[in-house]
Amino acid sequence: MCYAAGSFGAQGPFMSDRPTDTLPDNPELRRHCVVYFGNDWFAENRTSSHHIARRLSKLMPMLYIETPGIRAPQTTARDFRKLWRKLAAAFAPPRKIHEQLYVKTIPQIPFRNLPMINLVNRWLAQWLARRETRKLGFTSLISWFVTPHPGALAKRLGERLTVYYCIDDYAAYPGMDPKAIQALDDHLTRTADVVFVAPAALIEPKRGLNSNVHAAPHGVDFDLFAKASEPMTEPAEKTLALKHPVIGYFGTIGEWMDYDLVKHLATSRPDWTFLFVGFAATDVGVLRECPNIVLPGSQPYEDLPRWAKAFDVAIYPPRVNRQVKHSNPLKLREYLATGKPVVAVTTPETARFGDVVALADTPEAFLAAVERALLEDTPEAARKRMDSVKGLSWDARFRETVSVVESLLSRMRQ
Question: What pLDDT score does 12 carry?
Fold first, then answer.
């Protein structure tokens, strides 16, 4: 039986949502504790890692382990500050987020091409994880990985079950060592007892490595983002003076974005406002050159519907590379939940929503699609967009996931 002994660590802010649907009663899961390896708990951009972990921690005690180090640090002041901050956090006690959730940082040294680095990473992470689970009184462990680089710990923590919840093609990320990351991803896929896969394009390759692979497309926080369509929702104050039409985007502004496309849109329509809400994870100087592009920076997750309220059209403008082809973008579902018209480049995932998303393959076609969306939108079309994702809540996705894990645990007890 799993229990948590004591509550050490500072109380920290919890990433709140509206109350979820009634969570399933999973007696088999409640007999266990989970060690969950994810990205930063307090990251600017909330991912499926947070949505699943938050719900899972309501069913069972959880040690959420932040494992930075998938990307080699750049020679920037920001990266060095982050590296030292994470190293210091490794020796601090876990932060207590709520009664069943503790967050601990265990950094991974990213220079994997250097001799012995992988061995050092595994030893340090294994020692720290075992130490903290003992302090918390965790027994009957389940290990749950959302990133592949700590995957060498799978089956090394005394766990009864290992889960890999793959949400991206990590080896395709810019700035990665693709061979090293792919090897880690493949190892974790082979080792895990069950694998959940968000990007549809990765399902069959992973079934070649593990016979227990399940499709797990992203959900959406529908009730939150639907607020953008409600008359009583006040637009974000900083949007009130913006000139319409407002062509909007929210989410991380990363290297994968097609900046040539965005600049083409902005320079072709200087009377439009292009509002890009989110953390700039790369140099966005090309965007700042355009006076009609507004960059308000990161905003609280709960406030995104108020920013989306100002959108006349929402856009998804990535460069179509391996990373994007294998992605399962959360923002696509979030855009649709707002009811706003959506224009996106064509990818396998956006094509799945082709009846409610306008698709374009060239800058000229993208601009034309935005113009049509501005002219032709109707309340009926908005309702159809919202209905397309209304049944895809995170609660529904979570119930599907834990039912698979529950069944597997039950079979293991027999």
Answer: 34
**CATH classification for the domain delimited by 222-389, as one of 3.40.50.1440, 3.20.20.140, 3.30.360.10, 3.40.50.2000:** 3.40.50.2000
Q: Which residues of the chain have pLDDT under 50?
A: 1, 3-21, 75
Look at residue 83 in the predicted model and tell me its pLDDT. 60
Residue 412 · residue 212 · CB < 8 Å = no
Q: Does residue 245 have a cis peptide bond before it, meaning omega lies within 30 degrees of 0?
A: yes
pLDDT reported for residue 259: 96
Are 122 and 39 a contacting pair, CB within 8 Å?
no
State the Cα–Cα distance between residues 136 and 126, nearest whole angstrom.
15
Q: How far apart are CA 328 and CA 196, in angstroms?
A: 13
| HSE, side-chain direction, 13 A CA sphere, residue 11 | 2
Residues 6+ apart with CB under 8 A from 268: 367
Longest dimension (CA), the chain: 67
Residue 380, CA distances (Å) to 331, 351, 354 in order:
22, 21, 16
H-run or E-run covering 358: strand 358-360
> Which DSSP string corresponds to 36-64?
EEES-TT-SS--HHHHHHHHHHHHS-EEE
Instruction: Give the model's pLDDT for residue 414.
Output: 67
